[in-house]
Amino acid sequence: MKALGIILIIGGIFMLIFSKISFAQTEDVADTNLLFMNQQKNQTMALTFYTSGIAVLSGVIVVLAAKKKIN
Fold it and tell me: What is the C-alpha separation between 54 and 68, in angstroms, rounded?
């Protein structure tokens, strides 16, 4: 459980630092027996401040809850 909380905290911090992620997506355009064509599209995904804050906060809660012993 503690490892999950640490991963959430680190992921949230990376989301704060890198607010946009760019990636390429390949899409099939035409497919025949002799010819196969695809197209590559560049896309950008924006990571908001709220989602990174929620990830960090939930990671802290998970780490603190993991310190408590549950009987």
Answer: 21
> Taking the model in full, what pTM does it have?
0.66
Query: Could you give the residue ranges of the DSSP H alpha helices within the chain?
Result: 2-17, 49-67
Distance CA 44, CA 62 (A): 30
Domain count across the chain: 1
Residue 9 lies in a domain: yes
36 occurs within a structural domain: no
49: its two tokens: 């401040």
- Give the amino acid at 40: Q
At 21 the three-state DSSP class reads strand
pLDDT digit string (tens) for 26-59? 888 887 778 888 889 999 988 888 989 999 999 9
